[in-house]
Amino acid sequence: MDVAPIDLFLDDRHVDLADEVTEFAAEAIATLHHPRDDAAARVQAREILDLLGGAGWASYAVPDHKADIDSLDLRACCLIREALAGASSLADAVFALQCLGSLPVALAGSNELKQRWLSGVASGNIMAAFSMTEPEAGSDVGAIETRAERDGDDYVLNGHKTLISNAGIADFYTVFAKTNPEAGTRGLTAFLVPADTPGLEFAGAQVMSEPHPLGEITFVDCRVPADFRLGEEGEGFKLGMRTLDRLRTTVAAAACGMATRALDEALEHARHREQFGRPLADFQLVQQKLARMSTDLTAARLLVYRAACEADLGAERITLESAMAKAFATEAAQRIVDDAVQIIGGQGALAKHPVDRLYRAVRALRIYEGTTEIQHLVIARELLKP
């Protein structure tokens, strides 16, 4: 990984970390066989988590439970996702969900919950999941229909979640449900729900074009102790947005990792593939694509690490910075991967080729944790504030 374009935003320890995680990704992750289907991806996801835990990388997904959000080294998370995404979109997703599922616990969980669950997340022994999306609630979080009704010392959850990464293999889910159905987003509350809780069921896999452990879960009279509530009633939306405000920057970093791999593959092919008696790299139209790809990637990385640096230096919110980073980086990565396929030609459209896998994997980044369109609205809203 070339960190030169972003070294202004990195400490020396981050430069060292980038080298180390890039080496790990190349030796331990890129050498794994590519999962052939959803079932294989579910098995490999747990294997990857073991690797991340054993190498110490999973520990970066969890803030110090004795500190606050600023103890999450966001630049480190971005560097790790960037390296992993270039080697394996599945490995990137496994690390990302450790962050996404555990950060709400770190921010709003009781000390008992933090001590019981977060050490396992950091060691790679516990797999986390984040459960917000529903069939009728994507960008419109206020449309969530899952209910959580107080019953003595418990809450009883009933509802249906969809498009949940790690569904069926996670050890716990961070779940968002309505405790006050009439209050819109102000009626949302978050809970930590262990996977073995009676009434929580894996409702089936959802198959993506790039193998990924995605699926649906249901809650039928699922009793969760009140102590497993994250924060106060009605604070779920604020907690969810605070989590996404930080971590969507890492989605942009993953996009940069995929784009870097695509650019590397395109450069290698352009240098060595000959057509009409000379390398593709000699043709100006190919040079134009390569120039645009590199420029887009450099701009994306600068946006990503600017946002992450702001967070690490103590900014309470990085709403504008993270929205800009995610919107630009994910769209740029889509263009870069597409151009890589075009340069490589027919071989790049074969399922076994790395850029074809990138082509299938990168598309989802423009949707999850806030679509590009939502990011544009967020950016405009921030700009128009008095």
Structure in words:
The protein has 386 residues and is α+β, with helices and mostly antiparallel strands. It folds into three domains: 124 residues, Orthogonal Bundle (Butyryl-Coa Dehydrogenase, subunit A, domain 1); 105 residues, Butyryl-CoA Dehydrogenase, subunit A, domain 2 (Beta Barrel), CATH 2.40.110.10; 147 residues, Butyryl-CoA Dehydrogenase, subunit A, domain 3, CATH 1.20.140. Strand 2 and strand 3 form a beta hairpin. The longest helix is centred in the middle third of the chain and has 37 residues. The two termini are 41 Å apart.
Q: What features would you highlight for this structure?
A:
386 residues, alpha+beta, Butyryl-Coa Dehydrogenase, subunit A, domain 1, Butyryl-CoA Dehydrogenase, subunit A, domain 2, Butyryl-CoA Dehydrogenase, subunit A, domain 3, 3 domains, 4-stranded antiparallel sheet, 10 helices
- Categorize the overall geometry: globular
Cα separation of the termini: 41 Å
Largest sheet: 4 strands, mixed
Radius of gyration: 21 Å
User: CATH homologous superfamily of the largest domain - what is it?
Assistant: Butyryl-CoA Dehydrogenase, subunit A, domain 3
Q: Kindly state the number of beta strands.
A: 10
- Uncertain segments of ≥5 residues (pLDDT<50)? none
Instruction: Supply the helix-strand structural class.
Output: alpha+beta
Tell me the β content.
15-25%
The CATH architecture term of the largest domain is Up-down Bundle
Mean pLDDT comes to 95
